[in-house]
Amino acid sequence: MGGRVRRLLLLGILLIALGVRLKGITNPLLDDQAWRQADTASMAFNMLGQLTDFPKVFLPLLNYDGVTPQGVELEFPFLPYLLACTWTLFGWADLWGRLWSVALSLVTVGGVYYLGRKMFTDRVGLWAAAIYALMPLSIYYGRVVMPEPMAQAWSIWALAMVWQWRNSPENRGVWWIGFLMAGAILAKLPQLMLFPVALLLGFYPFKYSQLGQLIRFSLIVLMPPVVYYVWVHFNVAPSSQFVSGIMSGNMTDASNLGWNLLAKNIRLGLTDSVLLLSGVGLGRLIYSRSPVRLALLTWGAIGILYVGVVCVRIPLDYYLVPILPLVALLSAYALEWIGFLPATALVMVFLVLINWESYDYLAPKYDWNEEYLTQASWIRKNTSDSSILVLSDPPPMTFYYAHRVGFRITTLDDAAVPEAIPHKFPADFLVHLPQSAQNELFWNKVRASYPEVGPGVFDLREFTSQFRGKTDF
Hints:
This protein has 473 residues and is mainly alpha-helical. It is 59% helix and 4% strand.
């Protein structure tokens, strides 16, 4: 196949990938995974005006569970920092975050193509890029304001570059590839699973003459994440140590494994046909003599272990995103025997049609509730910037859109509502969130105790002032 045809096909795949990711591009960060998206954007908002305050600017800050933004133990805030820089130049708008994610997702599609092409053939690269571009989970999580698009882009290109380095005559300059892999791990910790794959792609079969390069590469990849996570861990309160909390809590809890939800997320998020094709590709790989066989089989084994240990304990579908490139590559390897036009176009249309149910699965993910914006807008316009909120439920998106800080109610004794809220939280306003889980008895007591000054906004200031100075908050 000529280079011109190959470039045209890749351009077509990228345009299709762009088109499907533009759906809901102007949505506020209130659709599926609103909590995580608003957290990412909140970190960016708290960086404004402090972009050169190193290293403090890289300590993620969220607006809840305190009277000031609280430091939290999360991934290195590459995307929030990029978003804060963009807002500084062009103004605050959710659209910028989505556009950055879409752009990074297209970079990943290009990386999947390049890796497939270098590992196997041009045909495998194009098939892998097309499959990755059209998988439902790849579509939706290619336009969310979360770390996934950046982590995916950097990790897939790190693998592609280390394989290219391995096959280059000079065999020098591996350090910058190590930094790219380290950046992927910093952006999203599960990308650590690709470190052994990178070692196998770059250094297997191992040669003693490359020992120094292997050690330097390993240190460059691993040291930045270790230093950063240790630094953040000891600079936040124990209640805000989310990463270590997940590792020590969820990973040791086997009492509630979400096998059924995990199976649904895999089937609909990756599609049945792609799963079948990836199985065929895996079988073909086992009996092949490909130089990347050991690396890809290791990647597959790590992926299965990751799904069976991590994803089943945290059955949120975006935890499956790190395995999508491997599934696309294996599926493409199974399809390598198919000629290009018109067979390629017919097979692609067929795959989309038989997986239409999976695309219907995405439809509810784009839904969002206008009441959050209405309420937050009222708060931003009618209360002082220093106002402290207490939200009726855990979802914290209102803090981001209202540009306020405060607390969230998780448990509260209904019988003590008139006194418990201002006693427990030094807040100025209580916010009745849309779709609140608190029962009607709770809200009847609230309405009888505090004046409603806005849409679901209750004034606590008169009552809170009685406890300030008397209670250790």
